[in-house]
Amino acid sequence: MKLTLSCSAWKEGDWYVSRCAELEVASQGRSVGEAIDNLQEALHMLLETYSIEDLTKRVARFYPELHADGLEKPKIRSTLIGKKDDLALYEFVLECA
């Protein structure tokens, strides 16, 4: 099963801020790439501490059909889907076995 999450990164002052709205996780970096890398690291830390049931509850408002039964911890893959000026949009895919 795959969950597709959106992520955006934008410039605020000298820093870039990145945020995954579905999981309510944010990070920052001195470049868009660093902000996204830091966000991905924050997501990995979140996934290490949350049970699959907790993760399912967190994204249930976006994926009401999702059930935790038999799922394993997901792996994260990120892809740039668009960039304009100081805004970048990424897609994070969480793959659960």
Topology pattern, helix = H, strand = E? EEEHHEE
Output mean pLDDT: 78
CATH architecture classification: 2-Layer Sandwich
- Strands of the widest sheet, in order across it, are 3-2-1-5-4
SSE class: alpha+beta
Low-confidence stretches: none
Radius of gyration: 14 Å
Annotation, overall tally of beta strands: 5
The biggest beta sheet is recorded as: 5 strands, antiparallel
What is the CATH class name? Alpha Beta
**Strand portion, in percent?**
35-45%
Shape category: globular
How many angstroms does the end-to-end distance come to? 6 Å
Give the domain tally: 1
Q: Can you count the helices?
A: 2
Helix content: 25-40%
What's the gist of this structure?
Helix content is 27%, strand content 42%. The chain contains 2 helices and 5 strands; from the N terminus they run E-E-E-H-H-E-E. It has a 5-stranded antiparallel β-sheet, covered by helices on one side.
List key phrases describing it:
5 strands; 2 helices; alpha+beta; Double Stranded RNA Binding Domain; about 100 residues
Structural account:
With 97 residues, the chain is an alpha+beta fold. The protein has a single domain, classed as Double Stranded RNA Binding Domain, CATH 3.30.160. The protein has 2 helices and 5 strands; from the N terminus they run βββααββ. The protein has a 5-stranded antiparallel sheet with strand order 3-2-1-5-4, with helices on one face.
